[in-house]
Amino acid sequence: MKLPRQQLAVLEAVSADEWTTVDALTAQVDEKPATVTGAAFALEEEGLAEVRETTEQDPSLTEEGETYVETGLPEVRLYEAALDRGADEDPVEMGAVIEAADLDGPLVDIALSNFARKGYGEIEGGKVTANPDADPDGDEEAAALAALAAGKPVDDEAVLESLVRRDLVELDERTARSVRLTDEGVTELMAGVEVREAVDRLTPQMLATGEWRDAEFAEYNVAADAATPNPGKVHVLRQAAERVKEVLVGMGFEEMEGPHVDADFWINDCLFMPQDHPARTHWDRFALETPAKIDELPNDLVERVERAHREGVGPDSNGYNSPWDVEFAKELALRGHTTSLSARYLSGEQVGDLEPPQRYFSVEKAYRNDTLDATHLLEFFQIEGWVMAEDLTVRDLMGTFTEFYSRFDITDLRFKPTYNPYTEPSFELFGRHPETNELIEIGNSGIFRPEMLDPLGVDADVMAWGLALERLLMLITGFEDIRDVHGTLTDLEFLRSVEVEY
Ligand SMILES: N[C@@H](Cc1ccccc1)C(=O)O
């Protein structure tokens, strides 16, 4: 009989008495796993071989496991520090040993519980005793972690199980296949099998020469294993930004553009933010050293803004009794909000004077010197927007949010009064997280005050907002930690699989 080359290679490599794994065959016949699997299935169909499928658990290190490969297991570090301090002779103060081992946070508990479990010693009355006979070099868990890190197998089931329990190792399920000859396969092999050259792709040359007429084509095997391709894709935050832009353009908004680094004048002074406001200290913002200041500001506007700060606007307004200095207004920083763009556009500086009605938006980065946590990054995307019209009310503002968020299927919105120097009234906006069910803040909004609008030369009402794109994305996709999508701790599986739809 004749068989395609790969099938013959597999047929010759397997035996009738033993199962040979596809992994082993892959190495033996020097073909890709998908090719070997395909050949094995073809042989099974022809009755020459059998294929057996089992589910295997592939161990791999978790992030914590990887860390311990580098730093050593916490209990081993504790033991070594204890020995150093003579705990094999006399009990030593636990605090001192922990410090010497450089353990802190959750590592302390991890070290203590495993220390005793593994017989490295005892902890009693706040003192550590080290077992002089314990051998950290023989630590089976450490050895198993090192083996896995080196890509070697770990055969000891009990050790593997304990590492899984400690969350240092993960088991990924995988279908493993093995192949064995049938009697018929043996018979055919003995009778002699020859190679049948099969063609696996059609070339222009074969078409030109007519060779294709006599060629034998290999069959596709759609059941064969294949590697999962993870091609590049648009990051989910970018996807969300694009969707948001589409929705806002659909709602009649035009897009604003402007500098990430801007003068404090545009970021704060134009928003009636007093110059001694806490958000304007170096604690909160990223100031530029070089260049430290903007070259020019529009003189008239500077005068009007300064007057509003000093005297207020209109009979009911007092202004601030705080210093105002144009040199301070000129200082450059990474914008802490994209409301700087709104100030630029409303002032007429960007696209000339604007007559109502107008609608503008941006979906751009803002930068804040926050403490990183599950809901804060040092930079984030703000969905800025404003509507200029005669006689706007809070209902218009709420209605716009209801409309906008409903496009993303978010209907449970809450409003909470708040304070901004530049809006009155002001509202924080909350939405319900689909996984935790908690209300999370998703934005801030309000109606710009006369103290802001008057110097900018705007007569009509302007309602405005800054919404966090990342928070919107949390509500859409249900992730709980902003660091899952941004920075060094990103959840690649999540990023690969998630799509933003509306
Ligand atoms: N600038 C505000 C958002 C906002 C914009 C416009 C009006 C009111 C609020 C913030 O960053 O939180």
TrEMBL record:
Please name the InterPro entries in this protein's record: aa-tRNA-synth_II (IPR006195), aa-tRNA-synth_II/BPL/LPL (IPR045864), Phe-tRNA-synth_IIc_asu (IPR004529), Phe_tRNA_ligase_alpha_bac/arc (IPR022917), Phenylalanyl-tRNA_Synthase (IPR002319), WH_DNA-bd_sf (IPR036390)
Q: Which domain of life is it from?
A: Archaea
Per UniProt, the cofactor note for this protein states: Binds 2 magnesium ions per tetramer.
**Domain Aminoacyl-transfer RNA synthetases class-II family profile: start-end pairs:** 244-490
Could you say which EC number(s) this protein's record lists? 6.1.1.20
**Recorded GO terms, molecular function?**
ATP binding; magnesium ion binding; phenylalanine-tRNA ligase activity; tRNA binding
Provide the cofactor list for this protein. Mg(2+)
Annotated compartments: Cytoplasm
Q: Which residues bind L-phenylalanine?
A: 339, 382-384, 422, 448
The residues listed in the UniProt record as binding Mg(2+), with positions renumbered to this chain, are 424
| Reactions accelerated catalytically | tRNA(Phe) + L-phenylalanine + ATP = L-phenylalanyl-tRNA(Phe) + AMP + diphosphate + H(+)
Q: What does the annotation say about its assembly with partners?
A: Tetramer of two alpha and two beta subunits.
Recorded hits in NCBIfam families, A to Z, give:
pheS, PRK04172.1
Q: Which family does it belong to?
A: Belongs to the class-II aminoacyl-tRNA synthetase family. Phe-tRNA synthetase alpha subunit type 2 subfamily.
What protein is this chain from?
Phenylalanine--tRNA ligase alpha subunit
